[in-house]
Amino acid sequence: MSKHDHAVVIGGSIAGLLAARILSDHFQRVTILDRDALPDSPDPRKGAPQTAHVHVLLRRGLLIMQQLFPQLDDDLTQAGALTVDWTRDLAAFTPAGWNPRFSSELTTRTLSRGLLEQVLRRHVTAIKNITIAPRCEALEPVSTEDRSAVTGLKVRYRDRMENNVVALAADLIVDASGRSSHALDWLASLGYALPEETVVNAHVGYATRTYRRPANFTADWKSMMVRTRPPFGLRGGLIYPIENDLWMVNVAGAGNERPPTDEDSFLDFIKHLIHPALYLAMKDAEPVTGVHLYQRTENRLRHFDRLTRWPENFVMLGDAACAFNPTYGQGMSLAALEAQALDRWMRATQNSLAFQQQLMDVVREPWRLAANEDVRLPGVGSAPAGRFEKFRHNYADQFVWLACRDPQALATFMAVTHLMAPSSTMLRPSLAMKVMGRMIRREKPNGKASNPIPAIM
Asked: Which of 161, 269, 342, 412 is the most exposed place for a label (fewest CB within 10 A)?
């Protein structure tokens, strides 16, 4: 297959790096543009404001990244990433009690977002036909006279004193610049109708602080989560192990239950989760950072499938295209799935509108997982739940109860969470019969622990 000449990727974070890796198979040259300096370190940077927070690499995302970068796993190990079996090494408390623990194939690597990005960037820069242009800002597209196709991009090199604005010719431009993308403004300026949007905003906020794992700490778990579901409260928390014997402690809440940023209030917030186990585990740990807050968590689905016109040679993916509540940990793995979709589209040699429409098939399942849960929270402003929605919510609640007692149900739930199986697998007859039996009996989860607290120290 002959290669095209030049592709430009806007954004050098996870989605942009994965897109560039795919495009290197299809283009003679690939250029990644990023506003930041992109030092060779895992330190947080301005253009990636979530770097200081927990980023869970789901099983599906890890498998795709391993396919794209065969040496990735060895490099992650060398960099200090841990291996976590999410049904064995996670102590998870739900309103139904403690989940059972058992070995499975749902293993991934845990590390900071900054370190993963650093390792991926090293792999990408080692590819001969990829160039990263740091401190370079995308300004506007260059198009044909009839505006039917994009032919390049005007950019500003922020460190140049003279001739800092130039036009880059490109056969394809991929916008992977995240929630701050200007692509819709560009499309409007070219005369294109913008996609309709569905927004589900549960007004969730979350806060993260990094701690040093206590030297004398021993436990039968590597990560701990205290989950909650309405009506048992709106707070949840997570201890997430990363490199250098550090823990990221992340808490989230909705409405008036959003977490604070000062140290004393942060600890008090954790103390008042629906179970004290997480607080007891981390209360004596040494903090190594301040408390970082993030509140831009709305789910935003753009309906590209309803469009009939789109400029050629321009596509959007990642959070630039559709964004999800980050608390569900789908972002990096969804970026990997979208990179695969980009590869399939390039091999099919279809028009750019076809890619945006096909992207809907990739994001539909993650959207269900995030939006269907967030719509239940107060303050969303959606219409009252109908009969079907009430049934779906009740079924989900009873499935959580079942997963607390039935390893098969928990394995299914975790496979869905890690994007290894569609949510329809939770409706398999063997599981549905158990869930429906509980629903018929009108049993309700009581929010009390059914299993003893796991060993903390």
From this structure: 161
